[in-house]
């Protein structure tokens, strides 16, 4: 696969020359052109260089969605520095761990996260902190974007190639400490290009970004992809009020809507005003991060006749997109076919390819596969084998190459030697009246080895669960050994920033209740 750009900075220079006055970013009532975006990135790069940032340095981002996030992406690329986007939902100890593990010398942070930053080890671990927003922190170590944009220092573009590391994205750490996935310029740009081909993104499109920019899905597909083709991005700084997302979608004439299942679950049920339904220009809803419920897919299709909801699959280690349904063909329950130039296989434990319809491990190959885990050669060797990325997910493919995810390998429940896939049970439970979402986990049992247990979050307005009715329904739909042996109703399922249920938290909850 050939590439038009070698790095992010080349991309923005190209579009600033070609479409200097075109709006690149919409933020509230402000419009930022491609020319202004490059100018701000250049000034920021000069400031960072003056403060000693050089090629290979790690620059950590603890930022809300903002133009400053994007300026920093291109400024760092100009200097040949490596970006470390950090989950802003993390607490001070978790932030400190990532800063120390990555060896980040600079932290770029938003004022709304000042407490976490100030209580963390950031001031000890980083040479300086650059703040976005209104915050009053005194001392030589603290600087502000207003100050950075006044810089008149010019700096040369360090020509980092396609194979050089551009970003280190830390995995969500559902088990153990998070690991940093090293993504090269080629990894991210290949994802942007493959996404462009599948979603048919052009310079005429406008994407809306309200999901956190630190997440790999938003970073590659929500931010880099639109800018890669010279399109525009509507930036939403805060999810509150949620109605603002729809307001901005309408006012800014958004054509591509990036979301996660939780958003589409809400959108499918929301009573949107007639004028939104009549005047919105959305042509594609893109869903990533977690599986969509069948009832959501159906409700969205019935509600939005002029738009297509495209469900995809990916993981941070794959930059992150791997496959997606297309406008030409979609299959309910499937996450689609491999994106352009990527390969997918279903294999057994010996890496032998399985037949269509057989469940096994999902492995991926292509320019999207990470370089490895930062400072963890052993973990890298276990995850990348002969160029194939072992995703840790299980599934099967049909004769047309459509992938069906069955479950995370680590979430597999083995009862009396029989495999039980939690996702299969969850899909049945989620269709039951009053259930908003469910999560099935396996717990140790002396007689069976493991048994399935379910946690259920109820729909808003549903006061109680008809447990007897649910059990009867499950016995009709599932083999007896798959029916959960315990049912727990919970106010809210614990989730990470992109809506994935944290099953380790539920397992810990079960463990604590047993010990109590």
UniProtKB/TrEMBL annotation:
Pathway(s): Lipid metabolism; fatty acid beta-oxidation
InterPro entries: AMP-bd_C, AMP-bd_C_sf, AMP-binding_CS, AMP-dep_synth/lig_dom, ANL_N_sf, ATP-dep_AMP-bd_enzyme
GO cellular component, as recorded: membrane
Its membrane topology: Peripheral membrane protein
Pfam families: AMP-binding, AMP-binding_C
Domain AMP-dependent synthetase/ligase positions: 15-374
Transmembrane segments: 214-236
Keywords: Ligase, Membrane, Transmembrane, Transmembrane helix
Keyword Ubl conjugation assigned: no
Subcellular localization: Membrane
Gene3D superfamilies per UniProt: 3.30.300.30, N-terminal domain of ligase-like (3.40.50.12780)
EC supergroup of this enzyme: ligase
Domain of life: Bacteria
Predominant subcellular localization, coarse grouping: membrane
PANTHER family registered for this protein in UniProt: LONG-CHAIN-FATTY-ACID--COA LIGASE (PTHR43767:SF8)
Protein name, entry field: Long-chain-fatty-acid--CoA ligase
């Amino acid at each position: 696969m050939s590439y038009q750009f070698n790095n992010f900075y080349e991309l923005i220079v190209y579009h600033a020359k070609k479409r200097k006055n075109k709006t690149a970013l919409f933020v509230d009532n402000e419009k930022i052109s491609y020319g202004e975006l490059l100018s701000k990135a250049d000034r920021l790069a000069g400031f960072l260089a003056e403060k000693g940032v050089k090629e290979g340095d790690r620059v950590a981002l603890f930022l809300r969605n903002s133009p400053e996030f994007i300026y920093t992406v291109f400024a760092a690329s100009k200097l040949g520095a490596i970006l470390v986007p950090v989950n802003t939902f993390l607490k001070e100890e978790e932030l400190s761990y990532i800063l120390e593990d990555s060896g980040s010398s600079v932290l770029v942070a938003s004022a709304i996260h000042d407490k976490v930053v100030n209580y963390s080890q950031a001031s000890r671990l980083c040479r300086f902190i650059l703040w976005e927003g209104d915050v009053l922190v005194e001392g030589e170590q603290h600087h502000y974007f207003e100050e950075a944009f006044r810089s008149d220092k010019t700096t040369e573009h360090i020509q980092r190639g396609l194979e050089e590391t551009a970003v280190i994205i830390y995995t969500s750490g559902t088990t153990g400490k998070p690991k940093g996935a090293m993504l090269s310029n080629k990894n991210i740009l290949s994802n942007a290009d493959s996404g462009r081909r599948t979603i048919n993104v052009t310079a005429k499109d406008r994407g809306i970004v309200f999901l956190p920019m630190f997440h790999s899905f938003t970073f590659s597909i929500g931010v880099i992809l639109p800018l890669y083709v010279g399109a525009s991005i509507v930036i939403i700084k805060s999810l509150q009020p949620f109605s603002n997302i729809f307001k901005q979608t309408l006012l800014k004439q958004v054509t591509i809507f990036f979301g996660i299942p939780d958003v589409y679950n809400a959108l499918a049920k929301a009573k949107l005003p007639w004028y939104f339904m009549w005047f919105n220009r959305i042509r594609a809803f893109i869903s990533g991060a977690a599986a969509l419920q069948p009832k959501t897919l159906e409700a969205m299709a019935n509600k939005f006749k002029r738009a297509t909801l495209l469900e995809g699959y990916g993981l941070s280690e794959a930059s992150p997109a791997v496959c997606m349904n297309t406008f030409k063909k979609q299959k309910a329950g499937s996450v689609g076919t491999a994106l352009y130039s990527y390969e997918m296989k279903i294999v057994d434990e010996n890496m032998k390819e399985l037949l269509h319809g057989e469940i096994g491990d999902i492995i991926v190959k292509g320019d999207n596969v990470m370089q490895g885990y930062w400072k963890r050669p052993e973990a890298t060797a276990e995850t990348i084998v002969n160029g194939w990325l072992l995703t840790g997910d299980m599934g099967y493919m049909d004769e047309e190459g459509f992938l069906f995810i069955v479950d995370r390998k680590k979430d597999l429940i083995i009862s009396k030697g029989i495999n039980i896939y939690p996702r299969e049970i969850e899909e049945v439970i989620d269709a039951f009246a009053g259930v908003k979402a469910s999560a099935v986990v396996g717990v140790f049992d002396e007689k069976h080895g493991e048994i399935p247990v379910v946690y259920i979050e109820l729909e808003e307005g549903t006061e109680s669960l008809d447990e007897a009715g649910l059990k009867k329904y499950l016995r009709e739909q599932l083999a007896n050994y798959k029916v959960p042996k315990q049912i727990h109703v919970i106010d809210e399922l614990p989730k990470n920033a992109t809506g994935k249920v944290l099953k380790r938290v539920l397992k810990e909850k079960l463990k604590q209740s047993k010990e109590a």
